[in-house]
Amino acid sequence: MSAHAVRPLQTPAKVNLLDFDRAALREYFAALGEKPFRAEQVLQWTHQYGADSFDAMTNLSKALREKLQHCAEIKAPEIMLDQTAADGTRKWLLRLDSGNSIETVFIPEEGRGTLCVSSQAGCALDCSFCATGKQGFNRNLTVAEIIGQLWVANRALKRDPRGERVITNVVLMGMGEPLLNFDNVVRAMNIMLDDFAYGLSRRRITLSTAGMAPVIDQLREACPVSLAVSLHAPNDALRNELVPLNKKYPITELLAACKRYVADESSRRVTFEYVMLDGVNDSPEHARELVRLLKEVPSKVNLIPFNPFPNTQYQRSSAQAIGRFRAILMEANLVTITRKTRGDDIDAACGQLAGEIQDRGSRSRRYAPLRKAAAQ
Ligand code: SAH
Hints:
The chain is an alpha/beta fold. The chain contains 12 helices and 14 strands. The protein folds into 2 domains: 15-73, DNA polymerase, domain 1, CATH 1.10.150; 78-375, Alpha-Beta Barrel (TIM Barrel). It has a 10-stranded mixed beta sheet with strand order 3-4-5-6-9-10-11-12-13-14. Strands 1-2 form a two-stranded parallel ribbon. Strands 7-8 form a two-stranded antiparallel sheet. The longest helix is centred in the middle third of the chain and has 16 residues, at 143-158.
């Protein structure tokens, strides 16, 4: 190309309307010189009817539809793989960009359907028992990429060969730490809650955190959905090992934030997740320590049998150990559920979600030789 060659005109980038909650859409339409109620109409078309083009939006004027075609788009992550497990659990691998993909899981149960949503490409926290952590971290997901998981799943489930299935609950328990992507996660949750979009109630959305204590307070102010906390150990020494974030926000600080979170509503409880690792955190003494720890916090406990992945140093606790642990908590009047392992034949169970991440740090390099060995 000569020095004077004319560069092709760049078409201006289109805005992705999946990035906008109702407030942002109203601003957008105001800037276009349109009435604010267009925001509600477009939300409904996009999220309730799954529209991905403006042609279908027949209650918008033709002129507005043409304007939108020119400057906006509705663009969700692309489905690369769609698998259904023997127990009906369905998992999608979604492409974000050239280097990153994430996984989203739908878990059907009697009377409800839960979508497990990812919030980051990879995770920076490096919990010792989690497959996502071993991949390292690339970036936060955009609002469009978070809500896009519901959008994609909703459309696919409407055409499910097993009959139409509905998302009644959302858990932010997929890949990543949602409280480290606070703004985008809150905006995406606003769309989940919006009656013109998914219309879920606050109680049917659960955000799970590894323990970002100060951000738990911010969440209470911004969008007080149900809170789950990945506790996994009843004392700091052990928790430092399993969840390194504990060194920054130790248990006392974390539980104080949890107490504040539910203080205003007497019926609310925090769910504490506790992964059952054989010989590590599953003894009767650990259970008694946990009972003492949670005495002052309105809690429920969710025991999660460890789901193995290649080259992990851990093993799942035996059914007897889990039963014994649970009995001690129940005796102390702690509501305790053992989480059923779902979809493990397609690697869709807790801690098995991996996708493909281009790690920006050194962690995946450290683990790469291990993964290679496992593949052989
Ligand atoms: N970062 C957030 C959300 C993602 S993890 C958090 O830490 O809560 C979702 C849940 O799966 C957490 O409770 C996590 O500790 C658990 N988990 C991770 N790896 C697991 C594994 N291998 N087996 C069972 N549960 C696991």
